[in-house]
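User: Design a sequence. Structure:
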């Protein structure tokens, strides 16, 4: 479900790096079972951001069966770390299997249950953070991890423009300063998150129209 026009999305997809066999199989599983992932283009962008940040440690708020974590892991050094969080134990078991197939056993740590509980058990720094869990808790996730991201680090929020549970037109209205009726908590949660990161003097934020929209916040100070 691309934000871009069909032709623009085709250009982005055609120019994106090729996934490996495991990534392709994970994507096929997602398509077959209707499982939401960030998608190939966003996955490649996450890997690029991790490389540009010279990332050693990554934390994910919501990991599913490991699709985004796998892209991140490809950018990490041998002594790096990616922390996967997921409340669904079956999905977390799938993530373990997928990461193992990619040879990333030594990089991955797995946390079942609430990601907001998990982040409290970890000290920083985290060079890259992905927020992709309950949309109404995005701002809470930012507040929980903000101090653990050093200057030069990056926080990425998925579904910054749309998702099945987000009212895209009402989200846009909220960002433009209106207050439409009957806004659901997920839509309002994304709007509150974007307002919060844009107001933070220590971060510079842009929204990129890839996949369902990603908000990329770079820590400047």
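Assistant: Done.
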């Amino acid at each position: 479900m691309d934000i871009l026009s069909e032709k623009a999305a085709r250009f982005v997809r055609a120019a994106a790096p090729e996934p490996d066999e495991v990534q392709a199989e994970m994507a096929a599983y997602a398509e077959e079972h209707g499982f939401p992932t960030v998608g190939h283009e966003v996955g490649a962008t996450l890997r690029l951001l991790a490389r540009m940040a010279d990332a050693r440690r990554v934390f994910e708020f919501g990991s599913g069966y490991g699709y985004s974590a796998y892209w991140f892991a490809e950018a990490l050094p041998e002594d790096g770390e990616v922390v996967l969080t997921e409340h669904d134990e079956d999905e977390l078991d799938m993530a373990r299997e997928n990461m193992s197939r990619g040879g990333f056993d030594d990089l991955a740590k797995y946390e079942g249950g609430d990601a907001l509980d998990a982040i409290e058990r970890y000290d920083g720094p985290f060079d890259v953070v992905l927020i992709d869990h309950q949309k109404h808790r995005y701002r809470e996730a930012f507040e929980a991890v903000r101090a653990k991201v050093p200057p030069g680090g990056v926080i990425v929020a998925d579904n910054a423009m749309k998702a099945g549970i987000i009212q895209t037109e009402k989200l846009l209205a909220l960002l433009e300063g209106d207050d439409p009726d009957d806004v659901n908590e997920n839509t309002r949660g994304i709007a509150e998150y974007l307002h919060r990161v844009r107001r933070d003097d220590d971060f510079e934020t842009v929204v990129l129209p890839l996949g369902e929209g990603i908000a990329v916040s770079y820590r400047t100070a």
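The first strand starts at residue 57 and ends at 61. The mean pLDDT is 95.
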